[in-house]
Design goal:
The chain has 454 residues and is an alpha+beta fold. The protein is built from 14 helices and 26 strands. The strands form six sheets. Strands 1, 4, 5, 6, 7 and 16 form a six-stranded mixed beta sheet that branches. Strand 24 (400-402), helix 12 and strand 25 (422-426) form a beta-alpha-beta unit. Helix 1 runs parallel beside helix 7, helix 6 runs parallel beside helix 7 (225-236) and helix 10 runs parallel beside helix 12 (406-418). The longest helix is centred in the middle third of the chain and has 14 residues, at 268-281. The relative contact order is 0.16. The structure holds ligand EPZ. Ligand EPZ is lined by residues 47, 50, 126-127, 153, 155-160, 196, 198-201, 222, 340-341, 363-364, 406-407, 434.
Length: 454
Amino acid sequence: MAGVSSKATRLSFKERPGFPGKCGMDQIRVVGGNPLKGVIPISGAKNAALPLIISSLLTSDTLTLENVPHLADVELLMRILGNHGVDISVNGRRERQSDGYARTIHFNCPTITETTASYDLVRKMRASFWVIGPLLAREGIARVSLPGGCAIGTRPVDLFIDGLKALGAEIEIEQGYVEARAPKGGLVGRHYVFPKVSVGATHTLMMAATLANGTTVLENSAREPEVVDLANCLKAMGAKIEGAGTPTISINGVTSLSGARHTVLPDRIETGTYAMAVAMAGGEVTLENTDASLLSAAIEAIRAAGAEITPTETGIHIIGHGDDIRPVDITTEPYPGFPTDLQAQFMALMTRAKGTSRIVETIFENRFMHVQELARLGADISLSGQTATIKGASELHGAPVMATDLRASVSLVIAGLAAKGETTVSRVYHLDRGFERLEEKLTRCGAIVERVSD
Ligand code: EPZ
């Protein structure tokens, strides 16, 4: 395998140790009341790592990714890619790098051995549907299960299908599978306007277009930093891409891509989550290995709520006052707007504000499941359509609560940090999908947070 150190450990997925919370029986116990003080290293972004890993299907050379977070979603995706013929090796299971743990992982796919992604795997994580782009571009054929709905909304795949059709693919839906075929000479570069902004459809079409014949122009593309990160990695692999990070991305197809080495960008959602935790619980924390410019809208909202945030050379310094929080209205929007993935955490913060705030969710129709659980801690929140009205300053009291999705579950943990007494969050496997070593990071800052196994 080109470029892979001899120290690399090849992991058979049968041998992989499980995730602590994988059986779903673990709980997180939080005892509130301690301000947070210290340094929290921010991990590589889950939502960048997933498409980057999928892009390894586009080349027969080795793609090496650094700063890959150790998360259940990443492990699952690696299992899925193994099924398509990607050979994966990890340099030391967990290399110590700077202040955090980050892994360097090598992906090598000399031949795609399987062009079907089964329901059994795709239903567990929607992002695995995105393999349809690279499989179709490289092999000319892909059969990928429809992902189905999920807790936060129906989440259809119409934009992927329309977009791939625009590149010349013939697509049929048969027994729950999307069956796609490229024309004889391969996909064809075209002009496509997304009728709605979609992160996943932008990733997928951008990957597919790298190996198409001619130029593809994607309009109304998602502008998320993770799209830019994927474009940068694809460019390092030899793709010709311009405009990532703007609504218009232009891709000149090439005949093949090579290997590359790329570092996964910092997790802006993890960054915002800990910043909100400090704003809520009070204290003084430096978030290391991150970049304030990745989450300007969220930082503006946290500042408006009263926390002091100063960007540093390698991260963000934050001082939270805990008991002096101001109400702030927000509306979730595609990037650069306020991210839906921080909506639940911001709602937790607003439950302690002195006044009433409103949160409008415009991305997913059912992303308010944390409301009922926050109410169990004493929050006063009413819902009308896509708007939540939060009457702040309620004293929060610890209670048993249930995680319903990834971001909702962490909102309950940070609410627990500011609540009186003990909160236990069950269904912890949601947290393990997207927050690396959450208990350890918070405990090091003086919080009382522990994982309890049944
Ligand atoms: C990505 O999901 C993220 N996932 C989500 O993070 C994030 O919440 C979301 O973008 C929005 O920012 C990853 O990056 C792995 P979309 P994605 O396609 O790509 C509708 C988390 O907690 N839509 O941008 O699936 C869709 O239903 C997760 O880490 C269509 O209608 O989201 C939604 O309403 C959860 N048709 C809107 O577009 C389509 O074909 C935006 O979804 C595709 C999407």
